[in-house]
Amino acid sequence: MAAIYRLIDANFNRAREALRVLEDLARLRLNNAELSRELKSLRHELTIAMNQFPVDRATLLAWRDTPGDVGTKAPAPAATPGRETEAGMAAAAASRLSESLRVLEESAKTLGSSRGGDVAAAAIERIRYRGYDASRRLELALAGGRGPQWSLCVLISESLCVHHRWTEVARRALEGGADCIQLREKGLSDRELLGRAQTLVEFAQKSAAAVVVNDRADIALLSGADGVHIGQTDTSVADVRRIAGSGLRIGVSCSTIEEARKAVQEGADLCGLGPMFPSTTKVKPSLSGPELLSAYLADETTSRVPHLAISGITQANAATLAALGCRGIAVSAAVCGAEKPEDVCRGLTRAIRGLEDVA
To answer: Are the C-beta atoms of residues 250 and 270 closer than 8 Å to each other?
Structure first.
């Protein structure tokens, strides 16, 4: 039984250490109270489950033989690619947890039902399944917030393009310094929407800018766009990940700090914050205002994730947002309806970067 005892002891400690890593990432990196409580609870329940094993702690300690363990003398393996990131740390810890719990479960079964091993095995199995879910949530959250902070995103809608065709507005916006173009068209056929997205991708590549498609992850993937932007009533971040994996940056519209925290905890890469000011494009029943931006930048959970302030933004109030710490804005009518979209973009870009005072 010596080998089984040592197996149980080693994997119990390994599982607890893995849970501690996951808990600390949830608590200290994500500031996610719910997830850190769940992982802490799993550590506690693992200890309780171990007390159900038909072997006590003193016996396990007596059979521990660290100096004689050949595994302690083996050379350390080369670092696994991706391990240097926090998401990689979580993935490695989740893998150790799963492996260790599986060994504990099988070890308990080996000890047999006559000695109570089946009770311990069932308890470990429950912990293993809960660990799968907690690890999934943690890894998805840590994988969010990817990519650069855009300064100026121009939302292209043909109906708002007064002086030029939508393609010309997009071209001029990129010329004026927009580093992201978002395609927002609701009434087009899938084929036409895809064609427009592909056109924008071709334009943007020449300027090293990004393209985002509103609502449609499938169109974004097919066109080669960089991301998709979803609203609170659209498909969820998790649904988009099922379709796109890490192939798209996911932006989420948020009108409250609670919505922003939820989006970040689900793995959003960017939050659209607003409405900031009254809009000429859409009727806004209520405004979130610059207060939402300030709350977002001050919040430990959300501040690490890129943002775009949106709605009613002009050169004048862009400077006001910049003074609060805003690093990116999204505009539509102000550029689409302009006679010289490139000049408007230059002014907005300078304003948000704090390069000039705008009257």
So the answer is: yes
